[in-house]
């Protein structure tokens, strides 16, 4: 299964380089609310990257059948089938699915690695498990 992982959870500086890279890739603007990776405050008060764990809850919730798992294990959104209802966003346990009012469809992490390349600490990595 291919997915984005955090290799060193304690090394995040909350610089938002990963967040910026993701929102720029999907929406061509830096807006943390439009990123499929989020930096949250961990239980210890330290910054923690939240990434898609490819759990499939979004796919099981989608009544349109717009979210399916590809051969590498990544859940993908078929933009032609997505009606933008946002139900998948509500069930995402990591809170990293994005639905913005100006877009007719939802977006999610596709394990592309853009955020990993942008991370100055080198703590994000796309792995195949």
UniProtKB/TrEMBL annotation:
<dbReference type="InterPro" id="IPR050572">
    <property type="entry name" value="Fe-S_Ferredoxin"/>
</dbReference>
<keyword id="KW-0479">Metal-binding</keyword>
<dbReference type="Pfam" id="PF14697">
    <property type="entry name" value="Fer4_21"/>
</dbReference>
<dbReference type="GO" id="GO:0046872">
    <property type="term" value="F:metal ion binding"/>
</dbReference>
<keyword id="KW-0249">Electron transport</keyword>
<feature type="domain" description="4Fe-4S ferredoxin-type">
    <location>
        <begin position="106"/>
        <end position="129"/>
    </location>
</feature>
<feature type="domain" description="4Fe-4S ferredoxin-type">
    <location>
        <begin position="43"/>
        <end position="72"/>
    </location>
</feature>
<keyword id="KW-0813">Transport</keyword>
<dbReference type="Pfam" id="PF00037">
    <property type="entry name" value="Fer4"/>
</dbReference>
<keyword id="KW-0677">Repeat</keyword>
<dbReference type="InterPro" id="IPR017896">
    <property type="entry name" value="4Fe4S_Fe-S-bd"/>
</dbReference>
<feature type="domain" description="4Fe-4S ferredoxin-type">
    <location>
        <begin position="73"/>
        <end position="102"/>
    </location>
</feature>
<keyword id="KW-0411">Iron-sulfur</keyword>
<dbReference type="InterPro" id="IPR017900">
    <property type="entry name" value="4Fe4S_Fe_S_CS"/>
</dbReference>
<keyword id="KW-0408">Iron</keyword>
<feature type="domain" description="4Fe-4S ferredoxin-type">
    <location>
        <begin position="2"/>
        <end position="33"/>
    </location>
</feature>
<dbReference type="Pfam" id="PF12800">
    <property type="entry name" value="Fer4_4"/>
</dbReference>
<protein>
    <submittedName>
        <fullName>4Fe-4S binding protein</fullName>
    </submittedName>
</protein>
<keyword id="KW-0004">4Fe-4S</keyword>
<dbReference type="GO" id="GO:0051539">
    <property type="term" value="F:4 iron, 4 sulfur cluster binding"/>
</dbReference>
């Amino acid at each position: 299964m291919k997915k984005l992982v955090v290799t060193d959870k304690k090394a995040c500086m909350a610089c938002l380089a990963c967040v910026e890279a993701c929102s720029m890739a999907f929406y061509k603007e830096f807006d943390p609310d439009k990123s499929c990776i989020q930096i949250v405050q961990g239980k210890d008060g330290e910054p923690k990257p939240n990434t898609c764990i490819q759990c499939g809850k979004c796919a099981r919730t989608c009544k349109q059948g717009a979210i399916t798992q590809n051969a590498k294990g990544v859940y993908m959104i078929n933009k032609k089938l997505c009606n933008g209802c946002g139900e998948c966003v509500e069930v995402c346990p990591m809170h990293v699915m994005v639905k913005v009012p100006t877009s007719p469809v939802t977006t999610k992490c596709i394990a592309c690695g853009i955020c990993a390349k942008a991370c100055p600490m080198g703590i994000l990595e796309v792995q195949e498990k």
